[in-house]
Amino acid sequence: MSTDITLTQEGIDALVKRITKESEGNRMRFIDNSPIFEEPLVGFASGDDPLFAEYKTIIGDYHMTPAEALQKATGKEAESVSVISWVLPLATKIKASMRREKTTPTKIWAHGMHYAPRFNDVLRAQMVDYLQRQGYAAVAPYTAAFWRRIVTPTDQSSNWSERHVAYAAGLGTFSHNDGLITPKGMAMFCGSVVTDLALPASPREYTSHTAYCPYVLNGSCGRCIERCPSGAITEKGHDKIKCFDFRAQFTHLAKPYEIERVTCGFCLTAVPCESAIPTGLLKGSS
Description:
Layout: H1 9-22, E1 41-46, H2 50-58, H3 66-74, E2 82-89, H4 92-96, H5 107-133, E3 138-139, E4 149-152, E5 155-158, H6 162-168, E6 173-174, E7 180-181, E8 188-195, H7 214-218, H8 223-227, E9 233-234, E10 237-238, H9 240-247, H10 254-257
Antiparallel strand pairs: 1-2, 2-8, 3-8, 4-5, 6-7, 9-10
Helix pairs in contact: 1-5
């Protein structure tokens, strides 16, 4: 695959889309070889964005800024720090397989969710490799040795949240179930790379971190609450621990589905934000 691009927003955007389209890793190899992900969205954030410092209060003081992540990777401070963030929307076929289901994930869904993170890691690695070959420092914090998950009796988080990075890069806002609602919906995966290549930041065309969620705005939806078979999503919000524990009950499907692990996804499908920003909520909503 040729990667002769210009090191601009447009060039980086094109490279992310090209890798996604052409990579054999983005295929349902054990189903029908169809794509796992459709065309991605790409956004950019400045490492100096004050929002990253705010995440130390919002998420925890352990959450790294882009500059801290790049310094951990290189051992030195960079004069300029940018973040490249992307949204990988799940293929329509994968999402459609779950829309009528209420208790059991489908085999197509299970395979998509299992192999999706693996391709996301491939994309991270290829983006880091490309930037480094062009002479720039780069790291994918989520797959770096210093990434870690923080688990407490009541919550789960990490020292690099891909969803919060995507929010900073103008790619979407948070939902009642803690997902990220993007112009291509909430049934997606996020990824990012930090680099010392100077890139202009994308605009955040929203004024609230929940601007795209009708339930949070005015209580007019709540479909994700209805879709959750575990009761982990209620009017009060999303219980991450209960959600995580619920997924363990699908271990019996691993063998018949010919996969290592089966995960949930009811709240991501058959909801107004599955594949788009809910109708009526424009980018400037607050």
